[in-house]
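Quick note —
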Amino acid sequence: MRHFTLGDFDFALPDELIAQHPAAERSGSRLLDGTGPTPVDRVFRDLPGLLREGDLLVFNDTQVVKARLFGEKPTGGKLELLVERVLGEREVVAHMKVSKKPPPGTELRMDGGFTATLLGRWPQDDGPLFRFAFSDDPYRLMEQHGHVPLPPYITHADSEEDARRYQTVFAKNPGAVAAPTAALHFDEAVLAALDARGVQRASVTLHVGAGTFQPVKTEDIAQHRMHSEWYEVPQATQQAIAQLRARGGRLVAVGTTTVRTLESWARSGQASGDTDIFITPGFAFREVDLLLTNFHLPKSTLLMLVSAFAGYEHAMDLYRHAVESRYRFFSYGDAMLLART
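Predicted structure written out below.
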C-alpha cells in the first residue's frame, strides 16, 4: 500500500473556478460522470438516467442554521460567534473570534438584544471551543438574529439568496453550520424523475461542523486529528438498506457526510453518536457503492475520502479534467458521480 502524504492531494485551482454564487437552477449545475474509465461531461438533471430501478439514494437531511452571530464585550470590543452545537435548552458550543478572549462569567451583548454568557472552554478546560449560556432559546435567536455561515472561500456577505440556496430542499433537522453540498443540486423535478425511474430514497442526519473546513497541517496525514460531528441513522433507513442488499441494488451516498455517517455506523454498530472517522486511501468501505459529491479543497480530508473511494489516480485525473473543463468548485459548484473501486 502506497504511503500518502499531504502533498499528494494538492492541485492547482484558479481562483475564478471557485463558485461564489449558486447556479441559476439547482439541477442546472454540471455533472462529471466519473463512474467509468473516461470522464463524461453531463448536466445534473441527467442523474436519474445514470441510476437503476431499485437503487437507493441516501441523503443527509440536516438543516443549516444561521449560526454566525455578532456582538461585543462589556469593554466595547467586537466579536463573532459561530455556533457549532446546541447542548441543551439554552447552552451552546461555539467558535469565538475576538481580539482578546474574555474571562469565564463575562456577559456578552449580542446584536439583536440578547446576551451570551461565557461559561468556559469545551470539551475540556483547554478545548478549542467555548461554551455559552444564551438568554433565550438558541435556535430561535439564531433564526431571528443570525447570519448564514457561508464557507471561508465565499467572499460576499450572506444574502436572501444564500438563506434559500445554501440549504437543501429536504432539510429538516436543524444543527449544521455547513450545507451537505452535493444535495444542493436536487430539486423537485429531479426527485420526481428519480421516483419515476424506481430509485428509492432514505435519509441520515449528520450535523456538519465548521471543522469540515479545517486544513490538514501535517505532511504525514496519519497524524491529522479529525473534528467530531453528531450523526444518526434512523431505523427506517437501516431497514431500507437491508432491503436494498436483499434485492441486490446499489447504495448511492449523496455527499461525503452521508458516507461518513454510514461507514461510522457500519464500523461501530452505533446508530447515533459522535464520529471523527477519517477516510483515506486504503479504507475498506462497507456500505456505499456510488458517491455523488461536489469538488473539494486541495489538501482537504474530503479530497482524501474521494480518493479512497474512487481510487487515487482516477480521482486526481478527474480533478485535472474538471479544472481543464472549467467546472465550478466547492459548495456552490458542480457535482461528480463516482463508483467505488
